[in-house]
Amino acid sequence: MLFEGKERKQREQEMQRAGRLPPGQALTLKWPVLHYGSVPRFDAATWDFRIAGLIDTPVRLSWDEFNRLPKAGITSDFHCVTRWSRFDNHWEGVLFREVMNLVRLKPGVGYVLVHAEQGYTANVPLPDLDRDNVLFATHHDGQPLPAEHGFPLRLIVPHLYAWKSVKWVRGIEFLDRDAAGFWERNGYHMYGDPWKEQRFDTD
What's the pLDDT at 2? Predict the structure, then answer.
């Protein structure tokens, strides 16, 4: 345990020197489990992914159809609003841009409301999703996502606090205005930039 603590501290100092550790954060070598509610049960036969909102035609994908979309991998850091950071995570899945390419957006779209199991939602501006390193992950560090970390599908938005990296995603809704999600309605910041410490609506 003493060696693990020393290793963690050395790694944390390395990340600070590299400018990769946001203010108020501490490095973790583990992957803490944090979420609201219970872990949903996955059924491939009934699971679907829906795209709705300001688009020409709504889309519904089955689990098999979603998995036939082109795959990609990214490596990124992960910053939780509860003040821990985990570095160099390798994610595999479907880029957000691949999903967005399935629809034609109507004029004025600027925001996305991410929908997940049990009615959970999170809001993200469209430009923050339309990036090379934002994807819907099915795997983490070479293994399928554990259920408690979002299996079968988790959105990964590396440059925002991890509550925006929604677990158990079931769809996205394109909007012309910002609309608060679950945590945003309960005191969290509407945007969530770790480098500005935008944790709460008072920040």
Answer: 46
Q: pLDDT of 93-120, one tens digit each? A: 999 999 999 999 999 999 999 999 999 9
pTM for this prediction: 0.93
Contact of 155 with 165, CB cutoff 8 Å = yes
Helices within 78-200 (DSSP H only): 96-100, 126-129, 182-185
Which domains occur in the chain, in start order?
Answer: 2-196 (3.90.420.10)
The SS3 of residue 9 is helix
- What Å distances lie between residue 142 and 41, 139, 164, 169, CA to CA? 22, 6, 22, 20
Are 157 and 129 contacting, i.e. CB atoms less than 8 angstroms apart?
A: yes
